[in-house]
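Q: What would this chain look like folded?
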Amino acid sequence: MLKAILYTFGTALLPVLEIRGAIPVGVAKGLDPWLAYAVGVIGNMLPIPILILLTRQVIGWLKKHNILVRFASWLERKGEEKAEQVRKYSFWGLLILVAIPLPGTGAWTGALVSSLLNMRLKDALPAIFLGVLIAGLIVLAVTFGVITVGGM
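A: My prediction, written as structure tokens:
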């Protein structure tokens, strides 16, 4: 069981996979779906405060190194594309961006966007947390749907 929890937690930490990958991994490894959800939420949220606080500094550092300028520019472009949607609705826009469990959304993207928009941690973190909870519930519902249909 510990191994399944660690796989789930590790998956939730990863950008792109996040909670939307962690729950199916946890369930596939034999975890109770609600335990997979809880572990996924914790794993997904763990790096977010650090990302919000340090993203702009990391991008600045990347731009100072010729070999990493293109990557830094790509990150900024990606964040700015999403920021346009969030800028208009602030908290709710960020929550919705994170809550939609599709590639290009999620807590990591939310942290990037909130950092580029200079959102305060106390405003961004609750929106991202609620978005992760909602995304996890959507993935859980889909996972249960797959389990129920597959089990018939």
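The radius of gyration is 16 Å.
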